[in-house]
Structure formats: C-alpha cells, structure tokens
C-alpha cells in the first residue's frame, strides 16, 4: 500500500504529503481555507484514516496532541480541569495501573497515581472509601453544543453542504461509488460514512448480506444547579466496568455539576426519556465516589 511504501521515509515529510493528498481526495483541486483550525481537523482525518498502520501507538499519540491543539481555539469553550479515575479497593489496583500504562502508551502527559492522602488533599469531597486514583491533569471539559456548531461552521466554510430534513430511503452501489435515494432526490457520491448512531444498523442492512441489530442504550443524567458547581473541581470517574466508565461527577463549563450516565438497554431507538429509577441509580452510584453531593 502507499502507506507501507512510505514507511522508510521521513515521517514528518510523509505526514505533510499525505495530508495534502487527503485535501485533494476530499475537495478536488479546490484547496480549502487553510486556517490553523482546519489544519487540525485535517490532521485528525489523516490520523483516523491511517490508523491501521499504528505501529507503536504513534497515531494515538498524534491524536492526543492534535485534539489538545484544536482546543486552543476560542470557537468553543474549553477548560482544562483534570480528571480522576477513582479506585475504591486495593484489590482493584492492577486495573488502575493498567489504565495508567495505557495512557502513557497513548501519549497522555503528566499522568500519575495518587494515594488516598494525596487524593483527599486534591478533592476534599472524594469518598472516604477511596483507596487511590489515576490523575490526568491534561483532561478538559467542553461545551458539546458549541463544539459541534464550531466544527459544522468550519466545514461549511470549506465547502461542505448540509441537507437537512433529508431521509435516506435506499443505498445502491454504482461504478463510481454509491447512489443515495432520499425523500429529497437522488445523490451520487464516492463514499458513504454511516454515522447514523442507533440507526446505523438500518443503513448497514441496506447494503450488507451480514445483517446486524443495534440495541439502543439509554443514559440518565442529573444536572445540578450552579450552586453545586464547585463541589468537585476535577472530572471524577469510577474505574471502568462491563458497561463503560460508570457514573461520573463533573463540573461543566457553564458552572453546573453533572452526574451520570446510567447504561440501560432498551428497544425504542427514540427512548431518550429520563426515569425516576434511572435518576436514583445515578445518585446512588455517584455517591460511591463523591460524598455530600448537594442534591437540594
């Protein structure tokens, strides 16, 4: 492959050359606006598309650096508040150490494991049962709404056209790629990215003989008042388990405190409702890692 043939060349020269080729592949001969913001986005695109050749985790390290650079822009709110992954029991320390080792391999800087005393000094409201924690000072929080808007605006400036209220009804392979049938006409494209979330199985099954079914998983959150926003300063995670990272407790960039989410398998793909049972589960599990949460 082209990437394999590049393996013996200067990595930095390869990166620059390949990013330029990606520009041409995506936008044709028309060069997009070459601001630093779109440069970071193109680097992320390159890292994702060449990830299969991630020898030694180099691409993951580049991704960490690129995302950090992207967050420097004021198109959206970003706050580097750090995070803690809390270990409640001594017997779980190997799992915490494994997270540390993985983070180092992925290029996350300044990681360290805190003992109970260091943890309590950093976060006084951490649970009294906490045994240790993985501290990542480079972790940050963003406003997810403004981040998506900023990326959409930048994409639009660089030639992306959005088709709102357009439902895909069928996908058909053609010689030059795909024919997309919608309620607003037929489109032709070289590539289709299936980013339909819980509906991704629907579009996958239109074109693949190997059918899949996605079971939606709903998450409940508690968003507390701004008077509770300073209860913790870091984003507090539990050690990951079967259903992911568990319940987090975190400040938001707007000054609130957020707890959640649950992970409940459901069949309704539109089931975004919050339940009393789910909220009770959020509160119960959040209080395993953080004490005295001001719910009222």
Give an account of the 3D structure.
The protein has helices at residues 2-5, 11-27, 36-49, 58-70, 93-105, 116-122, 144-157, 200-207, 276-286, and strands spanning 78-79, 83-87, 112-115, 132-136, 141-142, 168-174, 177-182, 185-189, 217-218, 222-224, 235-238, 248-251, 257-260, 264-265. The chain is an alpha+beta fold and 296 residues long. The chain has a 4-stranded mixed sheet with strand order 3-4-2-11. Strands 6-7-8 form a 3-stranded antiparallel sheet. Strands 10-13-12 form a 3-stranded antiparallel sheet, covered by helices on one side. Helix 2 (11-27) crosses helix 3 and helix 3 (36-49) runs antiparallel to helix 4. The protein is built from 9 helices and 14 strands. Strand 7 and strand 8 form a beta hairpin. The longest helix has 17 residues, at 11-27. The protein is 34% helix and 19% strand.
How would the global form be characterised? globular
Uncertain runs are 1-9
Order of strands, widest sheet: 3-4-2-11
Percent helix among the residues? 25-40%
Question: How far is it from the N-terminal to the C-terminal residue, by CA?
Answer: 60 Å
* H/E element order: HHHHEEHEHEEHEEEHEEEEEEH
**Based on helices, strands and strand pairing, what is the structural class?**
alpha+beta
How many beta-strand elements? 14
State Rg. 22 Å
Beta-strand fraction estimate:
15-25%
Q: Name the quaternary structure.
A: single chain
- The tally of helices reads 9
């Amino acid at each position: 492959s082209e990437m394999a043939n590049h393996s013996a060349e200067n990595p930095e020269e390869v990166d620059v050359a390949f990013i330029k080729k990606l520009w041409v592949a995506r936008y044709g001969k028309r060069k997009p606006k070459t601001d630093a913001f779109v440069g970071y986005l193109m680097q992320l695109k390159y890292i994702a598309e060449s990830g299969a050749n991630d020898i030694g985790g180099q691409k993951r390290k580049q991704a960490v650096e690129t995302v950090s650079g992207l967050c420097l822009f004021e198109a959206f709110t970003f706050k580097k508040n750090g995070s803690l992954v809390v270990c409640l029991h001594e017997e779980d320390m190997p799992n915490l150490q494994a997270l540390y080792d993985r983070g180092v391999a992925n290029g996350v800087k300044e990681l360290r494991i805190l003992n109970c005393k260091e943890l309590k000094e950093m976060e006084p409201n951490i649970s009294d049962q906490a045994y240790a924690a993985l501290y990542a000072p480079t972790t940050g929080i963003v406003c997810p709404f403004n981040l998506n808007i900023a990326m959409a605006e930048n994409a639009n400036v660089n030639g992306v056209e959005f088709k709102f209220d357009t439902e895909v009804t069928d996908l058909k392979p053609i010689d030059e790629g795909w024919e997309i049938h919608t309620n607003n006409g037929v489109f032709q494209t070289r590539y289709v990215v299936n980013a339909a979330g819980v509906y991704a199985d629907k579009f996958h099954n239109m074109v693949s003989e190997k059918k899949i079914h996605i079971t939606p998983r709903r998450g409940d959150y508690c968003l507390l008042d701004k008077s509770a926003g300073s209860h913790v300063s870091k984003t507090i995670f539990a050690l990951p388990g079967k259903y992911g990272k568990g319940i987090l407790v975190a400040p938001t960039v707007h000054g609130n405190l957020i707890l959640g989410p649950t992970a409940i398998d459901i069949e309704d793909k539109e089931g975004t409702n919050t339940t009393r049972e789910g909220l009770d589960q959020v509160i119960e599990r959040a209080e395993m890692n953080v004490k005295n949460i001001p719910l009222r």
